[in-house]
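Fill in residues.
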């Protein structure tokens, strides 16, 4: 059950600060508060900027989409919305893997394999990336995961199954709102009860295309200097909020 605002513990010490979020401890050792920043980065931090209202929008979009995938049977770390641009979440041990699910050719998949951008894939492609900023988050395979001791084979099976379940749920849900889920990045965390979907699901971590125009409504607008970045994030939230 979601907590009321009065039940949400206040921020404690800062545990971690990344490019897009700050994680704070709370008085409950099993819970953290996640603050979503307006900062924007791309190309491994080589491009930096600020997107107005991004933190508030990403927090709300993430909470909304976490609830969608929870309804489809995928457990997440979300506990409650904790303010204008914060979430209250279960504290997890993040597995240093970025799990990317691709439905349509775009971005690095097109560049690496010489495929035509916009081509719809016959089945989703799941890719694994080693979460190491100093190495540029390299693409790895299951053998590398074993070599590095990042996850057990059983955990990896579960992670890939959860990622595909998220994809199935979100593709249908977003299509009903005239959004194409092109691809997206997920992160997972360990708890004493097993694995949870963690991090966020937002225009920072997903490619959303308008179904009619093909226009990107995500961070690609920042990466590619297309303009209208804040409006794109707001449009995603408008479509989700309208049918909440």
């Amino acid at each position: 059950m979601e907590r009321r605002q009065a039940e949400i513990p206040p921020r404690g010490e800062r545990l971690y600060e990344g490019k897009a979020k700050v994680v704070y401890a709370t008085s409950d050792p099993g819970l953290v508060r996640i603050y979503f920043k307006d900062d924007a980065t791309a190309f491994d931090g080589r491009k930096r900027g600020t997107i107005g209202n991004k933190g508030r929008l990403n927090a709300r979009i993430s909470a909304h989409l976490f609830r969608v995938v929870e309804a489809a049977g995928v457990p997440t770390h979300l506990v409650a919305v904790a303010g204008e641009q914060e979430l209250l979440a279960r504290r997890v041990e993040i597995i240093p893997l970025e799990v990317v699910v691709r439905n349509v050719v775009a971005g690095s998949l097109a560049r690496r394999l010489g495929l035509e951008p916009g081509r719809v894939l016959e089945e989703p492609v799941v890719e694994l990336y080693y979460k190491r900023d100093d190495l540029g988050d390299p693409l790895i395979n299951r053998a590398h995961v074993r070599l590095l001791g990042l996850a057990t084979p059983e955990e990896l099976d579960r992670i890939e199954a959860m990622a595909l379940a998220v994809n199935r749920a979100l593709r249908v849900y977003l299509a009903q709102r005239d959004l194409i889920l092109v691809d997206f990045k997920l992160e997972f965390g360990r708890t004493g009860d097993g694995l949870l979907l963690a991090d966020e699901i937002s225009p920072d971590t997903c490619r959303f295309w308008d179904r009619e125009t093909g226009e990107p409504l995500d961070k690609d607008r920042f990466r590619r200097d297309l303009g209208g970045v804040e409006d794109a994030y707001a449009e995603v939230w408008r479509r989700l909020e309208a049918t909440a």
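The chain has two domains: 5-90, 93-227.
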